[in-house]
Amino acid sequence: MHIHNRVLLTDLAGTLKVSIDTARRDVKELDSQQKLKKVHGGAVSNGFNIYSGRNREIYDLDNKSVIAQKGISLLNKGDVVLISGGSTNIELAKLIPFNLNLTFFTPSLPMAIELLNNVSENDEVIFIGGKMSKRSQLATGGSSINILSELKADICFLGTGWLDPNEGITAIDWEIAQMKKAMIKASKKLVSLTISEKLNTHNRFRICDINSLNTLVTELDPESEKLNKYREKNITLL
Q1: Same domain, 40 and 155
Q2: Is 179 contained in some domain?
Q3: In angstroms, rounded to a whole number, what is the distance separating the alpha carbons of residues 178 and 103?
Q4: 110 lies in the same domain as 32
């Protein structure tokens, strides 16, 4: 729950080996105790679906900061950057250098706000609008995908909740998966900034094969044995 922020009742029931009704009752009880927020079909962690600025507690912040610092090294002056949401990407946004004259495109409302708070006057921030997902605060649907069809970014920082060498990059939500597919198609280079806990996990909707990923950035040493399966796929490791 802390890693992925959102869980479906069906997945929760399967993991705990209980009925859907039991999972629903437990979620309702935890919601009443304000330990999580009950939503249609599942639950989200407190603070997940409302952007609350920099004071919100970030899971595994130290490692995400390390990853963000590594990610900054991938930026070049004048780049057009396509970036989704996610707490690790948000940490990257806080570290953007002031001398690169970057142009950012994002379908993520929290990311757009964070970029506006951090980038220099020489950078541009363009929000890709559309139907908003309340849970992820990400624009989805045909209008946002159409905008992406006219774009070819130099680099895409794709927020990834589930990543596996065999199953590829996956998502829990169909519309978000389609949006992220369009982001990949609209980019020359695909980068994932992710804590190692998310490696070797997968969900129901495939976004892309692992071979679509150019660079994987984790808090681990790039030579770590935990990354061997990704190294074998010829993915650049940072």
Answers
A1: no
A2: yes
A3: 23
A4: no
Q: Which two tokens stand for residue 171?
A: 């998502």
Asked if 100 and 115 touch (Cβ cutoff 8 Å), the reply is no
Give the tens place of pLDDT for each residue, 171-191. Answer: 988 999 999 999 999 999 999
Same domain, 43 and 115: no
How far is 109 from 132, CA to CA, in rounded Å? 9
Dihedrals φ, ψ of 2, to 5°?
A: -65, -35
- Check residue 44 and give its pLDDT: 64
Report which of 166, 156, 148 is spatially closest to residue 193, judged by C-alpha positions: 156
Q: How far apart are CA 223 and CA 128, in angstroms?
A: 37
What is the model's pTM?
0.76
Query: CB of 205 within 8 A of CB of 184?
Result: no
d(CA 231, CA 110): 32
Q: Which two tokens stand for residue 120?
A: 């220099």
The count of domains in the chain is 2
Q: Are residues 210 and 105 in the same domain?
A: yes
Q: Is 1 part of a structural domain of the chain?
A: no
